[in-house]
Amino acid sequence: MNDKLVVIDHFSDLLCVWAYAAQIRLDELQREFGKQVQINYHFVSIFSVTEQRIGEGWKDKGGYVGFGKHVQAVCQQFPHVEISADVWCGDVPKSSANAHLFLKAVQLLEQTGEISCDGQENCDGRNLFEETAWRLRQVFFRDNKNISRLECQLALADEMGLPSDRIVELLHDGSAMAALCRDTDLCKEYGVAGSPSYILNEGRQKLYGNVGYKVIAANVQEVLNQPQHQASWC
Fold first, then answer.
1. Residue 45 · residue 194 · CB < 8 Å
2. How many folded domains does the chain comprise?
3. Which of 156, 157, 210, 186 has its CA nearest to residue 41?
4. Which residues span the domain enclosing 80?
């Protein structure tokens, strides 16, 4: 059996509908390849200023309402995801960065062993961090709640059994911000163009956007099967 480990640096924005729809591909990747694949999760703030990206960027196409209809149309292509009829209407997030900051705090708790990094029951094999990220996406896309608000994030933390006091501490002392800034540095280092992006083979293989599962799996297989010190043909 091939004992080689493929590391995938995965970059996404929580408010990106394409990343929301692509979660099923990450789940399948881990089911098929198991411990041969290690996914490192990073965030790229495509929606760092929603007023600029949507309010101004979609001003001639219906603004937030028009963008919400676009997102609903995208989700119609992916029957496995749920979408609110009022998405991007009402109390919309000002930025995805706040939600990313919250998840970096959760991720730090996982890295220090304060929360479990094993797959959870009834979570499709996702660990606690992965399930928290998935449910936060659902809170926005399915439930149409403003996930940039700390009270929304901490409500989910309580629901997931996460230590809210430690999360707030990591937000206050700068630890979560430092981790998020490191993600920003990695985006520049790898030339990440958008969400979702998959970086393999130490940056030699880069997949971006609505990439089919078979394409992702083929790239993983290429890294697994290539001889050491030989350039990939992918």
1. no
2. 1
3. 186
4. 6-225
Please tell me the pTM assigned to this model: 0.92
Tell me the one-letter amino acid at 152.
Answer: C
- 200 in a structural domain: yes
Average pLDDT over residues 64-73: 98
Task: Give DSSP secondary structure letters for 23-66.
Answer: HHHHHHHHHHHGGGEEEEEEE--TTSSHIIIIIITTGGGTHHHH
Residue 20 lies in a domain: yes
Structure confidence by residue, pLDDT tens digits, 23-60: 999 999 999 999 999 999 999 999 999 999 999 999 99
Q: Is the pLDDT of residue 72 over 80?
A: yes
11-30-96 Cα angle (round to 5): 25
CATH number at residue 217: 3.40.30.10
Residue 104 lies inside a defined structural domain of this protein? yes
Check pLDDT > 80 for residue 61. Answer: yes
Q: Given this model, what pLDDT does residue 137 score?
A: 98
**Burial 120-151, CB ≥16 within 10 A → b, else e:** eeebbebbbbbbbbbbbbbbbbbebbbbbebe
- Residue 208: strand, helix, or coil: strand
In the three-class reduction of DSSP (H, G, I as helix; E, B as strand; rest coil), residue 68 is classed as helix
Question: Measured between alpha carbons, how far is 35 from 152 in angstroms, rounded to an integer?
Answer: 33
